[in-house]
Design goal:
Layout lengths: L8 E5 L20 E2 L4 E5 L5 E6 L3 E6 L6 E5 L14 E5 L3 E5 L5 E7 L4 E6 L7 E6 L5 E6 L14 H8 L4 H19 L7 H4 L3 E3 L8 E6 L2 E11 L15 E5 L3 E2 L6
Length: about 270
């Protein structure tokens, strides 16, 4: 990572009067950042007037800080949401119309707001090299702290850890709790085994529920009601043997279902 050039952080003031907005885009006074139905991004002035900052069409990912006054856009390298290129830049929109551009000089990996939107933590680097972590102060755009990826990720400071890592480290551990988890997994397997070919879709929905992702009437992946990371893929046939419509029917018959497996959540 020391071969990478640490890029420049640009801080600019991008203030557009709300009076210049089209009438259909006029928003009520609010002291929170927001995005309208057309994808326009607004922050608030000190008086609560909406200030237009840009469009979500440029963003591969948009996040809101806990202060509800700050939004962050991971900018697409090319404006193609169906095939986004790796991002090299973040744009942070802050109350008063301030825009902070974070360009670390390498591909941006994980990033998140820190201290309720006062700072932003960014990891960056190439795919085949250890990451570099930097913490930026959003009032000045300056780097507060910077470090290379350690051999043991548990040694990272809290601001540099991913949300997944923080969640994993917060899970309480003990011999008793481990035994309870084993028993709970046994319950999951038992519940899954109660669903068999020949039963109906409505029987499946007593144990599992739907999630996002690609699906059809004849095939869908379901998630366990008590844990969205436990899933099964199910194949159906229509009660009459043919799919006359694309709409799912509670009486669709289960032809087969997979063994339960683990996977992250899928969104539409």
């Amino acid at each position: 990572m020391n071969k990478l050039t640490f890029g420049t952080v640009l801080v600019s003031l991008a203030i557009t009067s709300s009076q210049k907005l089209p009438k259909h885009q006029q928003l009520e006074y609010s002291h929170e950042a927001e995005v309208d139905a057309a994808g326009n991004i607004y922050v608030s002035s000190d008086q609560g007037k909406p200030i237009w900052m840009g469009s979500t069409k440029r963003c591969w990912e948009l996040r809101e800080a806990n202060d509800r006054q700050t939004l962050g856009c991971r900018v697409m390298s090319e404006p193609n949401p169906d095939n986004p290129m790796p991002s090299l830049q973040l744009e942070i929109y802050r109350k008063g119309g301030h825009k902070v551009i974070i360009a670390p000089g390498a591909l941006i990996g994980d990033w998140r707001f820190w201290k309720d939107g006062e700072q932003v933590a960014v990891s960056f680097g190439s795919v085949d090299t250890p990451a570099t972590y930097a913490l930026y102060d959003l009032a000045t755009g300056h780097v507060v702290e910077k470090l290379s990826q350690p051999s043991d990720e548990s040694l990272l400071p809290q601001w540099a850890k991913s949300e997944w890592q923080i969640q994993a480290e917060s899970v309480p551990m003990s011999a008793e709790l481990s035994q309870q988890r084993i028993q709970w997994i046994g319950k999951v397997l038992h519940d899954t085994e109660q669903i068999r070919p020949g039963m109906k879709r409505k029987d499946l929905l007593k144990v599992f529920t739907t999630e996002g992702g690609i699906s059809s009437r004849s095939e869908r992946t379901y998630v366990y009601k008590d844990c969205r990371y436990i899933k099964v893929t199910v194949h159906f046939k229509a009660p009459a043997g043919e799919f006359a419509t694309l709409d799912e029917d509670p009486d669709d018959i289960i032809e087969s279902l997979s063994q339960p497996f683990l996977a992250l959540s899928t969104m539409d």
